[in-house]
Here is the input.
Amino acid sequence: MIHEPILLKTILHYFSPNPGDNFIDATAGEGGHAIPIAQKVAPRGKVLAIDTDLEQIKNLQLNAPKNIVVEHGNFKNIKQIVQKNNFPIPKGILFDLGFSSWHIQESGRGFTFNKNEPLDMRFDPTDDSIPTAGEILNSATAEELENIFKLYGEEKMAKQIAREIVKTRRKEKLQTTGDLVNLVAKIKGSGGRINPATKIFQALRIAVNNELENIKQGITAAIEILGPEGLIAVMTFHSLEDRLVKNIFKTKETEGVGHRVNKKVIRPDYKEVKQNPRARSVKLRIFQINKS
Here is the structure.
């Protein structure tokens, strides 16, 4: 099942895909954005669809039209992936930095606190060099855990939670999301509209997948791939990502590389949020390369 693509009409409006154009979806997932773009650029235009999750890639291949070039890889290596596929200079590159509903509902890797699953959180389980969330929780020092929770989750009770993790694992390792949720509830309580473990899960996912550094590398490389008037569109889902993208775009603007198409973030309207609650936190920023 293809997840509901967020801000699809907006992306299509700005990218304005026409037959013969070429695009890159650096976070293709199951093709929610890539497939509609590919349909508009057919038959001669192509979409290079990249995803770090091999399961997502397999799902995309089941539905992908012939003019989608599917590639398993991390978008931080977008330059090498483009070269490997001899892909032409694209008109636009899309980054959707949210993880899909598939990851929550079907992956079984511990991305959600609403299910009791193994503490994995890797987008690419085929890469043995990436530590799981469980490995980090059970081996990092209290200070290292505190820094992860503060830096990537902006968690106010980072120190108390880190200490409790170290204390708990001396008796028994944390193995499931349920173990972690119960531990956080012990420190923060279990009430409220937002799950108390939300920021801890975010922080761990970012740490496991080295997300912020990968975003920096990927977007910087993507800007270098684009030709004159090429567009890069980035959808973020929390403040850390958005600040990083905003600063990259501002720096490139100052350097005279291009300009921000929208100084203020683009957000989905009420109707889209009502239809797709996942869209409520998304922020879209678009950057265009200068003519020359």
User: Anything to note?
Assistant: The CA atoms of residues 14 and 52 lie 25 Å apart. The two ends are 42 Å apart (CA to CA). The chain has a mean pLDDT of 92. The beta strands are 23-25, 47-51, 68-72, 92-96, 231-236, 258-260, 283-289.
